């Protein structure tokens, strides 16, 4: 397997997982799900870390630090705000039971 | 990169999948979110063991710390009602980060192979669009600028022109990588993001945020390709795909195609129609009458809508419900999926007033109940109870499932005027003989009804 | 990315796809779905082709040919029998509509 | 291997995913299956361009052709009712193929790396279990051997012993790869497969087939690892994962845990109880009485069960339904998800008699209807209408959702005796005052009722 094809395969499988995993979400959870997904892409933070750690010029380092800052805000803030939203949604025994019976 | 780091990345990817899975089910949503955070933690620790250079380690750690603190404070301080714009902002900065990383890779000469160069350019463009677009949505929702659709003269043509220029610059950049061209591209993409979001009406913004969220996901995936980092590819793609699904689900829940949201057609219509106020007779009543109707009913259903949020009347509504329950009246809340201005708006609002979760009934559950209900009290809702959705093919909400309020014996509306709601269309139910209107701000009206009820 | 980790990633993503994709199946379709999945693993046929084409001893070739035979029966027979089963299940407009509204 | 071949494999993998997705929805099931077949075709063509040696090309092509023809003929000729055993057989040969491929790789010295060796041994073991297990399920279903649970003296201990020996041999083989040991392992695994399936009662076999199907999937995935073939990994894993889900869904639909199925506990109980026949009074009637009851009803629901399949009375039932409809009686079929002996059994059976699909009502849909139904005609069903599932905590079917036949005004059972059904438990409904029994083979009884109805 060539590395390129491997990445392509991973990409395509991830698309399917992404599609399938959220396709059953109930309307009530749209906003928290959006917010949680939003937090997940904050993982771009590690990209920022990688490029900054390799940087040798001041200019690039500044850009990298900004990227890290933004990424960390996205990542950490995203999970915290989602958690706060979900605090409001107490679990409701009935809905999952309904889903089971289908 | 050591195998252990790669395994840690894989575990983080699995945790992200489980997070999305959890977030899709009411029972596991909160745990799902925590799993996602755990995944992020695992990955962030792992990256330091991945043999990255040790340049700038202190600044990196400081930047992470500062960013985290800012994120935590912002999320903790924000009011419940301001959450959508905070999500928009977070999304934007994520897109910005992805774009910056690709800019850096570009400056490093990251375009050694054509596919990598394409991915770099893609990230820059999409990340920048997501950044500027999200900032505009933030400004709109935060009401730092008008939340009305902004119509620039010949706006559509300008947008198309900028889009074309962006594509041209992107292709050119792939062919001959030059730094000045990158800057031009960046500016074009930022500008496009602005143009893209300006014509969207404030209330459609949640859909746009979701779309920009998917965009950011894709740009993160592309930057993962540039950096040869599988975790970024998987996580970004997951968000891109699930964000796309979510966007279309959201648009569907509001009963209209995505395209009209994006091009502001719907919102524009809403603005036009909003002025129309006919002079047909309606039956209005005072707080005392309403208190009596409610107090002597045996079954009451409360229908909250956007107006409840505007009036911040959730606690007063709860007080009313408690009073009625004490008197032996059966009280339920009927929650329409798109009542308010963001999905789950009513749940969040009523949870803030500590309404027990069991009293919130979803549409499918409550609809059969209306026919056996004495009084339905509609508090600042309009579109979600408008029978035109069932009958009037020309209505923009035609086909959207609604709460069957018109099946009840009596309906009381609390609203300030005869003005229509978000969709901008007349509600026939307001003119129905069994309907009573109590004009005024929802909070005032409810306070008066509560006072009257106490003396009844 | 090491090839091993790449394969592992692909393996795990495939597990998620497999889980998610069938988790909403209605009872009526259990048997055809089982049969269709059964046909899919008949793709082991190509493994048989690969090893047989590289074989240099008669013994191995015989084993390989048997593997190809079995794989082809599984693959081709599996899809045909599934199709025959599904002929019996005429589409029913109502069920998918129901699913949509959830 | 050229990039094009790898792309073709990727396309095949996507088609397989789409196939599973399609097969999970009634609307797209058939197209899904065709997509799967297309994927298989793409991959099989591609493999010849993947730079494999050209040794033995003619025999390879002949083997493919012969295998395909055998597969097609077998699938075309088989009777609808014999499909489960054919699926079992196909599954078994797939497992056998995977095991053989790994044997060959082993002989080639495929165990250069430890992980590859482990995967080889895994495939051999799981493939062989799937092969011999499937053959036994085939023999059981085809009634070439008893379909009762076969209880070997001290069977459980023998099974455990063989399992332990298999694991020991497998580990040993990984440590020191020797051909004789491989043969011993193969024999042990085959033997284990037999022991594994023997104690399973005939009617539980669909669940076991599904489980073995998942096993084969996993062994194919492992052989893909050995051959460094991504398509086999993806396809095998997909089947392994979806097969596991499916197995547990199937077990759940029958309302009991997987473990009891596998260890035959349930079936054994059924056998014991099957003899019990109490001497309580029941009301039985002749065909004429039943014809009159049905003919003068305004609403009739037909409940088919396993007995209908045994008696092959589907066409006669349809004739009866048509006659009743002609007379102006409303007739529906109530399809319980696990009526019969395989999921969808009743759908397949009634489709064979060309009963229009719209008349088949699923459980959730029909259950509210029973209370307004004059006569329910239960044809060879028992467990699926047994109220013990609701009330009797000790019943093995407790908790299984059933058809609410007892809510109807009158119930008529067509069965041959007072013997219980698959679960081996008494059905109180048979003794209910509103129940009438018409004893005899379902086909005979129905023929007589039809004749009587024509003269009524
Ligand atoms: N939930 C979402 O995710 C989402 C997102 C975007 C758009 N939307 C759309 O928003 C609409 C939601 O329907 P809805 O019924 O909740 O709201 P609506 O149709 O917009 O109606 C809101 C009503 O509340 C009244 N109101 C406003 N402020 C008030 C106050 N202070 N006191 C009392 N009444 C007040 C308004 O009438 P007056 O002006 O006469 O008082 C108006 O008729 C749907 O069309 C939906 O598609 C929903
Ligand atoms: N669908 C599946 O996937 C599946 C798979 C495995 C097991 N199962 C199990 O099978 C059961 C299915 O329930 P069911 O109600 O369909 O069947 P059942 O409970 O097994 O009852 C079948 C009835 O048909 C009668 N019968 C048999 N041959 C007959 C004939 N020739 N003419 C007339 N009557 C005849 C039998 O009584 P007499 O002997 O007195 O005639 C028996 O009471 C459930 O327990 C289910 O869990 C289902």
TrEMBL record, chains A, C:
InterPro entries: NADP_transhyd_a_C. It is an enzyme of class 7 (translocase). GO terms for cellular component: plasma membrane. The chain crosses the membrane at residues 6-23, 35-54, 60-82. GO terms for biological process: NADPH regeneration. It holds the Pfam family PNTB_4TM. Residues 8-90 form the NAD(P) transhydrogenase alpha subunit C-terminal domain. Keywords: Cell inner membrane, Cell membrane, Membrane, NAD, NADP, Translocase, Transmembrane, Transmembrane helix. It is a multi-pass membrane protein. It is found in: Cell inner membrane. It catalyses: NAD(+) + NADPH + H(+)(in) = NADH + NADP(+) + H(+)(out). One of its GO terms (molecular function) is proton-translocating NAD(P)+ transhydrogenase activity. Its EC number is 7.1.1.1. This is proton-translocating NAD(P)(+) transhydrogenase.
UniProtKB/TrEMBL annotation, chains B, D:
Its EC number is 7.1.1.1. GO terms for molecular function: NADP binding; proton-translocating NAD(P)+ transhydrogenase activity. It is an enzyme of class 7 (translocase). Its main location: membrane. Residues 6-451 form the NADP transhydrogenase beta-like domain. SUPFAM superfamilies: DHS-like NAD/FAD-binding domain. It is found in: Cell inner membrane. Keywords: Cell inner membrane, Cell membrane, Membrane, NAD, NADP, Translocase, Transmembrane, Transmembrane helix. The keyword rRNA-binding does not apply. The transhydrogenation between NADH and NADP is coupled to respiration and ATP hydrolysis and functions as a proton pump across the membrane. This is NAD(P) transhydrogenase subunit beta. It comes from freshwater metagenome. The lineage of its organism: unclassified sequences, metagenomes, ecological metagenomes.
């Amino acid at each position: 397997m060539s590395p390129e094809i491997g990445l392509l395969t991973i990409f395509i499988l991830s698309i399917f997982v992404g599609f399938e995993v959220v396709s059953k979400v109930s309307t009530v959870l749209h906003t928290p799900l959006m917010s949680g997904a939003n937090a997940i892409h904050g993982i771009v933070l590690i990209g920022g870390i990688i490029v900054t750690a390799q940087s040798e010029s001041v200019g690039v380092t500044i850009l990298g630090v900004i990227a890290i800052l933004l990424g960390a805000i996205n990542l950490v803030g995203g999970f915290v705000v989602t958690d706060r939203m979900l605090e409001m949604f107490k679990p409701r025994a009935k809905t999952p039971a309904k889903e089971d019976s289908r | 990169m050591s195998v252990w780091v790669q395994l840690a990345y894989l575990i983080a990817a699995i945790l992200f999948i489980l997070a999305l899975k959890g977030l899709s089910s009411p029972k596991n949503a909160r745990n799902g979110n925590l799993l996602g955070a755990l995944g992020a933690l695992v990955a962030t620790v792992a990256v330091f063991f991945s043999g990255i250079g040790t340049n700038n380690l202190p600044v990196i750690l400081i930047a992470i710390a500062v960013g985290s603190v800012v994120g935590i404070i912002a999320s903790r301080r924000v009011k419940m009602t301001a959450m959508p714009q905070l999500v928009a902002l977070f999304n934007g900065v994520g897109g910005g980060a992805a774009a910056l990383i690709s800019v850096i890779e570009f400056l490093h000469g990251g375009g050694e192979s054509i596919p990598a160069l394409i991915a770099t350019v893609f990230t820059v463009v999409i990340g920048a669009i997501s950044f500027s677009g999200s900032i505009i949505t933030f400004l709109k929702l935060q009401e730092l600028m008008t939340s009305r659709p902004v119509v620039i003269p010949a706006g559509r043509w300008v947008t198309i022109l900028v889009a074309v220029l962006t594509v041209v610059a992107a292709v050119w950049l792939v062919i001959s990588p030059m730094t000045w061209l990158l800057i031009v591209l960046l500016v074009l993409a930022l500008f496009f993001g602005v143009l893209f979001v300006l014509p969207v009406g404030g209330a459609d913004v949640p859909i746009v945020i979701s779309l920009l969220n998917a965009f950011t996901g894709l740009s993160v995936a592309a930057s993962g390709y540039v950096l040869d980092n599988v975790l970024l590819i998987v996580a970004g793609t997951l968000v891109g795909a699930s964000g796309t699904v979510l966007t279309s689900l959201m648009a569907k829940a509001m009963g209209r195609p995505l395209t009209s949201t994006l091009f502001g057609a719907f919102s524009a219509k809403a603005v036009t129609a909003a002025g129309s106020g006919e002079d047909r007779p309606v039956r209005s009543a005072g707080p005392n009458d309403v208190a009596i109707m409610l107090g002597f009913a045996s079954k009451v259903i409360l229908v909250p809508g956007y107006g409840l949020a505007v009036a911040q009347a959730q606690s007063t509504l709860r007080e009313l419900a408690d009073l009625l329950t004490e008197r032996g009246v059966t009280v339920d809340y009927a929650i329409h999926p798109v009542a308010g201005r963001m999905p789950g708006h009513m749940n969040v609002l009523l949870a803030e007033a500590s309404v027990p979760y069991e009293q919130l009934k979803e549409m499918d559950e409550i609809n059969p109940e209306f026919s056996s209900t004495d009084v339905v009290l509609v508090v600042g809702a309009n579109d979600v109870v408008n029978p035109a959705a069932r009958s009037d093919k020309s209505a923009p909400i035609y086909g959207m499932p609604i709460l069957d309020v018109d099946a009840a014996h009596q309906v009381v509306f609390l609203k300030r005027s005869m003005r229509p709601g978000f969709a901008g269309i007349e509600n026939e139910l307001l003119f129905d003989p069994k309907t009573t209107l109590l004009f005024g701000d929802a909070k005032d009206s409810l306070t008066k009804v509560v006072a009257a009820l106490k003396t009844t």
